[in-house]
Design goal:
This protein is an alpha/beta fold and 479 residues long. Helix content is 30%, strand content 25%. Strand 4 and strand 5 form a beta hairpin.
């Protein structure tokens, strides 16, 4: 059906065209449902594809390439002149975003999914009012999926002006590399953007109010990352509270309160506020269907992704939990299956990935978390520096750590920091999802020479028998 064309009724109405919304739409269509997607954006993909995951990873990739060129001299590769036209980089990024968004739109057409560029508001548990440039219309539905996502959280003392005080949305679209950048927030968004501009030569300062960053990561891996930050022109101040700011010519002068209660000023060209995200529920007409959010603004759902109104589902960021696109993908498939009468419920491991340099990835329990839950654990670590493939890539910083229950040897968690661990974490996720034991991965043959060998070696380290690293403790494979 032509984009914008809308029948008076649909079997499933989806509010939001982001990772949760478009995946739910496609899966529902595959299962034979008539689906209509209502999106504020003119193309599907949502924040992740258009203003978050994809554009940030594009810039991360470009920045890594730029930073790696001088290092190639050790391989005998020499360059006389190195420069970057960041406006061209942005055009390349936007091209990739558009290609992917148009690809999803093409899938919608192939699956005969109605896509409406508009705003939707519930009038009842069976009807949505649609506000578009063409005026008002109404849509009757049998089931609805709320997939409206989230938006950057704003600090009252540092309101976004989209010029000097930016959210993650604006920072990804600037056309000039700043000389200096201060980031309030040491979460994954702040760390990833710090890496981009650190690699491009910007003086980057990260301000974090908590006493540490990356709380889900065990200290050995966290220490490796902190060492790398210093090498990338990035400074980190923890236990540091931003108080206020003032403009000083074309710079922002930030007043900070340090851990000892003393104060200091920090000057930079731009200020990024990356202190988390809030669910988008305003304007949805939730009051018309007596659907309430929790204290933090998230919609409550059951394991089938149903809200308190059983014909209305919520998925992705708006439903809380880990605010990750792949979590939204999984919930979308669960909701779609349940709407179609299939047995489907949430009971899955969600890997987390931070696209810094080096990358960070983890799934399951950390050693600290496992012990807090009462597990007696055994652990194993293997450094990328001992791996042939990592050496030939000249990317040797990092380790893989495996955590298992001592008695049963069931794998509880795997944490990674190093090259391309965003791709390696899936094996770990599958292992934990299937209840694998250490020997299951130890007996899995990993091709040589690859980075994946580090996964197997970390498992062997937990068993006390790593091949490429001396380890004094010896145990049998079945002990």
């Amino acid at each position: 059906m032509v984009v914008g064309d809308l029948s008076e009724s649909t079997e499933v109405a989806i509010l939001g065209g982001g990772p949760g919304g478009f995946v739910a739409a496609i899966r529902l269509a595959q299962l034979g449902k008539d689906v209509t997607v209502i999106s504020k954006d003119p193309l599907p993909g949502g924040t992740c594809l258009q203003r978050g995951c994809i554009p940030s990873k594009a810039l991360i990739e470009a920045a890594k390439h730029f930073a790696s060129i001088p290092q190639l001299s050790e391989m005998g590769i020499h360059t006389k002149e190195l420069k970057i036209d960041f406006s061209e980089t942005q055009k390349w990024k936007e091209k990739k975003v558009k290609q992917l968004s148009e690809g999803i739109l093409q899938l919608f057409k192939q699956y005969k999914i109605n896509f409406i560029h508009a705003e939707g508001k519930f009038l009842s548990t069976k009807e949505i009012e649609i506000h578009s440039t063409q005026g008002l219309s109404k849509l009757n539905f049998e089931h609805a999926v709320i997939a409206t996502g989230s938006q950057a959280k704003e600090l009252p003392s540092f309101p976004f002006d989209k010029k000097k005080i930016l959210s993650s949305r604006e920072i990804l679209s600037i056309e000039k590399i700043p000389q200096s950048l201060t980031i309030i927030g040491g979460g994954y968004i702040g760390l990833e953007i710090a890496g981009v501009f650190g690699h491009l030569g910007t003086e980057v300062h990260i301000i974090e109010v908590l006493p540490d960053i990356l709380p889900s990561l065990d200290k050995e891996l966290r220490q490796i990352f902190l060492r790398q930050l210093k090498k990338q022109n990035i400074s980190l101040q923890v236990s540091c509270k931003p108080l206020s700011y003032q403009m000083k010519q074309e710079k922002i002068l930030l007043r900070l309160q340090l851990n000892d209660q003393s104060e200091q000023d920090l000057e930079s060209e731009l200020l990024l506020v990356a202190v988390g995200r809030t669910p988008v529920t305003q304007g949805l007409g939730l009051e018309n269907i007596a659907l309430k959010t929790d204290a933090r603004g998230f919609l409550k759902i059951n394991p089938h992704c149903q809200t308190e109104k059983k014909n209305i589902y919520a998925i992705g960021d708006v439903a809380g939990g880990m605010m990750l696109a792949h979590k939204a993908f999984a919930e979308a498939k669960i909701a779609a299956a349940h709407i179609c009468g299939q047995a489907a419920a949430w009971d899955q491991q969600v890997p987390a990935v931070i696209f810094t340099d080096p990358e960070i990835a983890y799934v399951g329990l950390s050693e600290t978390e496992a012990k807090a839950k009462g597990f007696e654990v055994i652990t194993g670590m293997f450094p990328f520096a001992a791996l042939g493939r990592a050496q030939t890539m000249d990317k040797t910083e990092g380790v893989i750590k495996s955590i298992a229950e001592k008695n049963t040897q069931r794998i509880l968690g795997i944490q990674m920091i190093g090259p391309q661990v965003s791709d390696l974490i899936s094996e770990a996720t599958l292992a934990i999802e299937m209840g694998a034991r250490l020997e299951d991965l130890e007996l899995t043959i990993h091709p040589h020479p690859t980075l994946s060998e580090a996964v197997g070696e970390s498992i062997e380290s937990a068993l006390g028998i790593p091949i490429h690293r001396y380890q004094r403790k010896k145990t049998s494979l079945t002990s």
